[in-house]
Amino acid sequence: MEHDDLKIPPVALGTWAWGDTGEAGRGYFGSGLTRADVEAMVDKAHAAGFRLWDTAMVYGMGRAETLLGEVLKRLPRSDYQLATKFTPQAAGSGDHPVADMLEHSLARLGTDYIDLYWIHNPGDVVRWTPQLIPLLKSGKVRHVGVSNHNLDEIQLANRLLGEAGFRIEAVQNHYSLLYRGSERAGILEYCRSQGIPFFAYMVLEQGALSGKYSPDHPMPIDSDRAATYNAMLPQLKTLTDALSSIGGRLGASAAEVATAWAIAKGTTPIVGVTRPQHVDGLVRASRLMLTRDDIVDLEAIADAAGVSTRGWWEREMVV
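RESULT FIELD:
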């Protein structure tokens, strides 16, 4: 079944933090979202032309999908695009686990199709990838992508889909100034050569590159991300200072410069939004023009920080 081409925005909107409980200081991010915040974000994003929302069943085990579906139902379905994920590690024991997880996501999101359906982690490429094919044929899934796959796994998934007349239409991996494994492994170059959009998640390293946090002002101490990043903040200060310095020249924040770097590298950042003003920042980031010297300097400073931000769920991309 053929569908319109996937519309790739300069920035996609992430909802990982929406899976937290909603109580300040609780959950992975400790973001403390309110329903009013979320509605205001959706309205502002829609007005600004950001239409692609990225979520997953495992973001709060359905909480993020449910909240996103509730706040988007005020808009015509044609006015936004939904991306969600099949996570092999959370698969059920039925005969059709990919289709089963999709059905639950469709119900929570209040829709009868997903614009972009990801296989969240490889698990077993030969087992899971072919199960996308009947979903594409049915129209319940319009386009498919893979996340957290290495280059060999991306190529294998593409071959398996190609045998049925489909293809990988997007790749989503962790990619930031501090974690450029997909670039070093040749994944970005492969995507460019094949015309496959590359979506970069954790561009801001869960806020560590936002300029908001420092050794004197750490992340919420009872959030999970604090355990990873607070100890790194002293090593990241030179980088966040450089981001702020470039931002001062361009009239932008450190977070906007880090996002603009990812755009300049030919990727589509997926940036988590937890406040309406974040959308304003994404508008500015999508318009920033970094110089070649800016990019080289930022990457050199990031490398000198000597930190590893690879998530516990991620394998090294460079083997």
